């Protein structure tokens, strides 16, 4: 798909230099940049969701279960050695 965009002259010069240095077309450079931006946005959204989940305080029941599981796997590993 073709599209037209307006960018500052300095940015155009940087893209032009980059595209020549890396033997890519300007279109490829812009497509790579947009793809990177979109992936970064998805990553930030995922990180925010994970931070929200892990920010919740662990209930006493969850803490007991985590400790019980940890002891179970410690014994299992020692037994296998």
Between the first and last Cα atoms, what is the distance in angstroms?
60 Å
Give the overall silhouette: elongated
> Count of DSSP helices?
3
Structural class call reads mainly alpha
Per DSSP, what share of the residues sits in E-state strands of 2 or more residues? under 5%
Helix/strand order? HHH
Radius of gyration equals 25 Å
Q: Which residues sit in consecutive blocks of at least 5 with pLDDT less than 50?
A: none
Q: Roughly how much helix do the residues carry, as a percent range?
A: over 70%
Task: Give me some keywords for this one.
81 residues; mainly alpha; elongated
Description:
The protein is mostly helical. It is 78% helix and 0% strand. The chain is built from three helices and no strands. Helix 1 (9-21) packs across helix 2 (26-54). The longest helix has 29 residues, at 26-54.
Please summarize what this structure is.
With 81 residues, this protein is mainly α.
List the helices and strands and how they pair.
Layout: H1 9-21, H2 26-54, H3 60-80
Helix pairs in contact: 1-2
């Amino acid at each position: 798909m073709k599209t037209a965009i307006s960018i500052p002259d300095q940015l155009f010069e940087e893209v032009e230099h980059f595209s020549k240095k890396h033997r890519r077309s300007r279109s490829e450079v812009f497509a790579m940049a947009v793809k990177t931006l979109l992936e970064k946005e998805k990553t930030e959204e995922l990180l925010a969701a994970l931070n929200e989940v892990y920010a919740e305080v662990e209930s006493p029941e969850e803490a007991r279960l985590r400790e019980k599981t940890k002891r179970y796997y410690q014994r299992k590993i020692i037994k296998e050695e």
